[in-house]
Amino acid sequence: MSKLDEMTLGEIKEAAALLSCGNKETGTLNNMVGKDVIIRTYSAGCWFGRLEEKAGNEVILADARRMWRWWAADGISLSACALHGIKHDKSKIVEAVPSVWLEAIEIIPCSPGAIDSIKGAPNVQAG
Q: In whole angstroms, what is the distance from residue 93 CA to residue 69 CA?
């Protein structure tokens, strides 16, 4: 019988945590998967949606709305949009697409109020 066979469940969990802590893809950097987020991209602007997958700087966003122009309800930054939502009269938010692949440089989780605000924004119309 090896030492491995004698390990308790607690010791196995500790070992598993130690082994995954250096692996960014299966460690804590994916803790936003499944949450509504704002993504700032390299070249495709800013997007809002549910983070479905993340691998390195590549993400798949579901129910994704391009934030063509945004104005924070309180504050001046994209982070403020994620915290407080947007001003509907000054923002231009595009109709949602089922999913989109993006290269993310920033992933910001949204507060419940911000989620309601951005989801509730009217679809921008041309003209």
A: 7
pLDDT tens digit sequence for 90-124? 999 999 999 999 999 999 999 999 999 999 999 99
Please state, in angstroms and rounded to a whole number, the distance separating the CA atoms of residues 40 and 102: 9
Beta-carbon contacts of residue 77 (< 8 Å; ≥ 6 apart): none
Strand partners, 92: 69
Q: What is the mean pLDDT of residues 38-46?
A: 94
Contact of 54 with 83, CB cutoff 8 Å: no
Distance between CA atoms of residues 105 and 10, nearest Å: 37
- Give pTM, 2 decimals: 0.76
For the chain, domains (ranges, CATH) are 1-31 (no CATH), 32-119 (2.30.30.100)
- Tokens representing 22 are 């250096």
